[in-house]
Each structure stands twice: as C-alpha cells, then as structure tokens.
Design goal:
CATH class: Alpha Beta
Strand order of the largest sheet: 5-10-2-1-13-15-16-14
Strand content: 15-25%
Distance between the termini: 35 Å
CATH superfamily: Acetylglutamate kinase-like
Shape: globular
C-alpha cells in the first residue's frame, strides 16, 4: 500500500487496544512544527477516531516557531537561553495572540471539522493550568537572568476543566441520544498557564506532562517532527521501546541531546509520577498516531517504567 493510501491499523489489530484504553484519558502534545494546516488536516481525523472509539483525548500544543516568526515580523526581540524563551510583556502579548489565538483556534476548528466536539483557549481551558512565575536563575551559560513572564506548572485544576467543558455543552447533540454534557468534549490547551497576575509562558511538554499526571492518563503522546528516539543517524528507524533506565542511559551517553533531551526528561518525569506509557513519534507521517496507539509494533518510541 502506498504511503498516501495508508488508512491506519485494521479493526482486527486495533480492537484489543481500544478495549484496553476505552474510557481513559490520553494526552496528545503537538509541537509547533505540526500546526500547519496540511498537517493538522492529517492529525485531527486521527484524534477524532480516538474519540469515537471511546478514548478521552486532551490536546496540548506549542507554537515556538510561529512566535519567532511573529517576533521578526513585528520587530520584537527574540531572547532565548538554552532554548528557554525570556518572556517580556511584548513577547507574552505575541504568545497570547499567536499561540492561544490563531494556532489554538486552528486546532479547535480542525477537530470540529473532523466531526468531534472540542473547545480551547476562548472557552477558558487554560485557566485550569495554575503556575508560579519562574524566579531569576542561571541559564546554561551560568549567567543569572530574569526570565520575565515564564511559568512553571504548580497544579492542574481538573474540576475547572470539567466545569468549563460542561459550560459549553448546553445543547443536545443531534447525532446522539446523549446530551453533550455527558460526552467528552476535547480540551485544546495552548502552552500558557496563569497566576494571580495573569498569563504565563509555559513549556508545552511540561503542560502535557502535568495534565497527564493529574488526569491519571493511560498515555502521554509527544508528537514532533521526528520519528522518535534515534540511536544513530544511520538507523533505519527509531528505537521501538525503552525502559526508564535505558532512556536515562542514552541521555548520560549523549545519544539523546538538545531538544530531544528536554522532551525525554519530561517523559521520564511523567513515568516517575505514574503515567504508565509515554510515546514519542512523528506527526508528519500518515496515520502515525493511530498506528502507534492501536498496533502491536507501533511506529515511534514507547517509553515504559
């Protein structure tokens, strides 16, 4: 079968996995590199399929590349240390406009177009992410800096997520006999949290980890532009499975470095806090999400305790 004709796993193979995880939360984090319309058009139907077979998806997304582009367009300085964005009031305004506005709406609209209920920043979902402002601290270069409006997740208010979900589910869905309030409406969370002073810029992987832990999710899925954890550049594909100890060894050996190291650190934090499975995979390949979740072999890297 040609790649562009890939329709995903067969029902016979997927059935046991569906039965195992039906009714459970699955947190799916999308990197900003996946938020172009064509890629959303491939990912949203897969998330919709998860919803239709009884899983409860929660979507978290970033948007770093798009914020960089907006900063350049509007002559706002881009200041990062070790990949961390120093967030001035001007940068925070752009983050809210681009990530919580344009990108979040694009994802919510994509899910609705795929036939499933979703709601995002405009419905207040980000108020469930309680944060503390990061204090001045040393970056990777050892220099102490004021990070501005950067937040670290303190708690996830699950009740607030549920209350906000119920608030927009006031009508009956004509496609089902159940009221919408009794069905799962997919929250779509941008990489923002808040404290008493307002919005904070938060790492999207950290938001996804915290949400997965707080919801007792069956899985945390980190979707990126690469196919998973690669041992060396010449490998045909990603490492299929890793234990916590094996992943830590790859970090110590320098095999996992840079942006992937930060991602794996968040994955290990999720495992340590009780999330039983973390997946890292590409969001660019057709049906990669369904193949990873509902087949024996998968297509990315699965991290296990």
């Amino acid at each position: 079968m040609a790649v562009h004709d890939d329709r995903g796993p067969s029902l016979a193979e997927a059935a046991s996995w569906i039965a195992r995880f039906s009714g459970r939360h699955v947190v799916v984090k999308l990197g900003g590199e996946l938020l172009e319309p064509a890629v959303i058009g491939r990912i949203a139907p897969q998330i919709a399929a998860m919803h239709r077979v009884g899983l409860k998806p929660v979507v978290v997304h970033g948007g770093g590349a798009q914020v960089d582009r907006a900063c350049r367009d509007r002559n706002v300085a881009i200041d990062k240390v070790g990949g961390r964005r120093i967030t001035s009031p001007e940068v925070l305004e752009l983050l809210v406009d681009v990530v919580a506005g344009d990108l979040n709406e694009r994802l919510v609209d994509g899910l609705k177009a795929a036939g499933v209920p979703a709601h995002g920043f405009a419905a207040g979902v980000s108020r469930s992410i309680r944060c503390t402002q990061r204090p001045a601290s040393a970056g990777s270069d050892g220099v102490v800096r004021d990070w501005g409006r950067v937040g670290d997740v303190e708690d996830v208010d699950v009740r607030a997520l549920e209350e906000e979900r119920a608030a927009v589910a006031v009508a009956a869905d004509p496609a089902t006999s159940q009221p919408l309030g009794q069905r799962w409406i997919i929250p779509v969370l941008p990489s923002l949290g808040f404290d008493d002073a307002g919005w904070l810029n938060v790492n999207a992987d950290a938001v996804a980890r915290a949400v997965a832990v707080r919801l007792d999710a069956a899985k945390l899925v980190l979707m990126t532009g690469v196919r998973g954890i690669i041992h060396s550049a010449g490998d045909a594909g990603p490492i299929s499975r890793l234990s916590r100890a094996q992943a830590r060894q790859l970090i110590d050996d320098g095999v996992v470095a840079g942006g992937m190291r930060a991602k794996v650190e968040e994955a290990l934090g999720a495992l340590d806090a009780g999330v039983p499975r973390v997946h890292i995979l590409s969001g660019r390949d057709p049906m990669s999400l369904l193949r990873e979740l509902f087949t024996d072999d998968g297509c990315g890297t699965l991290l296990l305790p």
